[in-house]
Structure formats: structure tokens, C-alpha cells
């Protein structure tokens, strides 16, 4: 279901993106829902009970924001660096078994290819781990262009990664559309001045964020209609 009335703005309805920018975790790959019990397990390793709300707040964010979040919810004495190392260890073990792709991904990518619309991944994940995840999901051959978290100076919700992704496509921001499932990602797209498509994974953004969204769909297969 779309979040905006198609008929409210004819200019918007007629817009057909020349390029597509895709988040990875939670949008294309089922890599966020499996993390919830792993966060809880890693927290218990250090004697802390981590609530799902804390995990949800961390989704789509990295670095200092998550560190500060943990300090707020788990105490300033929480050993974040050791926790992060343990979390990465058990996440790698879990994802080594394989990663599922989100519903509609293949249909969506096939539609882009059929229309000769270029696309690029824009993920906060470091490049080596992004490539590893795509390999584990058996879709690495579908993605030749990536902009990763270790390649921009500021992470989401700053606009840097989407600006860099549009540049990689050789297109203006106004010619692209970005797909996201996280609050920070949608904020990043808005800050970049790019149209956004929201597809919910775990988190429902607040109304002030949803008000910036151009379109909303239940899954990527539904979103493929944008390119018919």
C-alpha cells in the first residue's frame, strides 16, 4: 500500500527515476530480524538484559550513535567495545549459515534490468562485510556498484552516502530514488533531497519522518510497479 495519494500531484505521478539507490540490511537482505536474539545473547554475556526497543533504535545506525544508545539504556559503564566485538563474532557465525533475501528482491531487480535502469547499493556496512553478506545471500552477482559505510565521512542520517551513490550512477539527486527500511535511512534521503520509498522491516518511523516519504510499499515486488 502506498503512503501518498497518487493523484494529489500529477508531476510527482509522472516522475520515473533514472537511477535507483538501495539500502541493503533489512531492505534486500533478511539480516536485521535475526540480530534481535543475538543482541540479547551478547548482552547477557556481559550481565545485561538488552530490550528489543534498544535493538530497534540501533537499526540503521552505526558508530557513536549506537555507542551512546547503549550507554543510555545499559549504563555508562557498559563495555561497549567488548560487547560489539562479541556481537560481531556471533552474528558472523549465524550469518555464515546463509542469508535469506527479502520478498520481491528478484522481481524488483529483474524489472530494473528490463528497463535499463541502473542501481547501486548504499549501505552503512563496511565494504568487506557488505560483499560477504551479498555472497552469503547468493546475490553478489546482481550488484556491481556499491557505496559503503567506510567510504563516506558521515554515516546515515547524514546525506553523504546517498549523494555519493547518485554520483556513482552519474546522475543528479533529483533523477534518483532511494529505497529504505530504517528511520536513519529515510532521514538521510530527505537530507540529500532525494525521493524516498519506504518498505517496512521492523521499525515504523514516526509521522515526522513518514511525512517526508515519497512512496510506501509492503515489499519490493510491489515497488516494481514504479518502473512499469
Kindly list the characteristics that best describe this protein.
single chain; 228 residues; alpha/beta; Rossmann fold; 2 domains; 11 helices; 6 strands
Describe what this molecule looks like in 3D.
It is built from 11 helices and 6 strands. It has 228 residues and is of the alpha/beta class. A 6-stranded parallel beta sheet has the order 3-2-1-4-5-6. Helix 7 links the parallel strand 2 (119-123) and strand 3 (146-148). The protein is globular and about 55 Å long. Helix 2 packs across helix 5. It has 2 domains: 6-31 and 99-227, Rossmann fold; 35-95. Residues 1-11 have low confidence and may be disordered. The chain has helices spanning 10-14, 35-45, 52-58, 63-74, 80-95, 105-114, 127-136, 160-169, 183-192, 207-210, 220-223, and strands at residues 19-22, 119-123, 146-148, 176-180, 195-199, 215-217.
Give a quick summary of the entry.
This protein has 228 residues and is α/β, with parallel strands linked by helices. The chain is 43% helix and 11% strand.
Question: Helices, strands, pairings?
Answer:
Blueprint: H1 10-14, E1 19-22, H2 35-45, H3 52-58, H4 63-74, H5 80-95, H6 105-114, E2 119-123, H7 127-136, E3 146-148, H8 160-169, E4 176-180, H9 183-192, E5 195-199, H10 207-210, E6 215-217, H11 220-223
Parallel strand pairs: 1-2, 1-4, 2-3, 4-5, 5-6
Helix pairs in contact: 2-5
Amino acid at each position: 500500500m502506498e503512503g501518498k495519494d497518487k493523484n494529489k500531484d500529477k508531476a510527482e505521478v509522472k516522475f520515473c527515476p533514472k537511477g535507483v539507490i538501495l539500502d541493503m540490511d533489512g531492505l534486500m537482505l533478511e539480516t536485521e530480524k535475526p540480530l534481535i536474539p543475538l543482541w540479547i545473547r551478547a548482552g547477557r554475556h556481559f550481565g545485561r538484559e538488552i530490550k528489543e526497543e534498544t535493538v530497534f533504535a540501533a537499526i540503521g545506525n552505526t558508530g557513536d550513535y549506537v555507542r551512546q544508545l547503549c550507554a543510555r539504556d545499559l549504563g555508562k559503564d557498559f563495555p561497549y567495545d567488548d560487547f560489539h566485538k562479541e556481537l560481531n563474532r556471533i552474528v558472523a557465525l549465524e550469518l555464515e549459515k546463509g542469508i535469506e533475501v527479502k520478498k520481491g528482491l528478484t522481481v524488483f531487480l529483474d524489472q530494473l534490468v528490463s528497463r535499463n535502469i541502473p542501481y547501486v547499493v548504499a549501505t552503512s556496512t563496511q565494504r568487506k562485510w557488505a560483499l560477504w553478506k551479498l555472497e552469503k545471500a547468493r546475490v553478489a552477482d546482481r550488484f556491481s556498484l556499491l557505496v559503503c559505510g567506510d567510504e563516506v565521512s558521515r554515516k546515515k542520517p547524514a546525506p553523504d552516502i546517498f549523494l555519493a551513490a547518485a554520483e556513482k550512477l552519474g546522475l543528479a539527486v533529483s533523477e534518483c530514488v532511494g529505497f529504505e527500511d530504517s528511520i536513519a535511512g529515510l532521514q538521510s534521503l530527505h537530507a540529500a533531497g532525494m525521493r524516498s520509498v519506504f518498505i517496512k522491516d521492523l521499525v515504523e518511523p514516526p509521522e515526522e519522518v513518514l511525512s517526508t516519504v515519497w512512496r510506501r510499499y509492503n515489499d519490493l515486488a510491489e515497488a516494481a510497479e514504479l518502473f512499469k
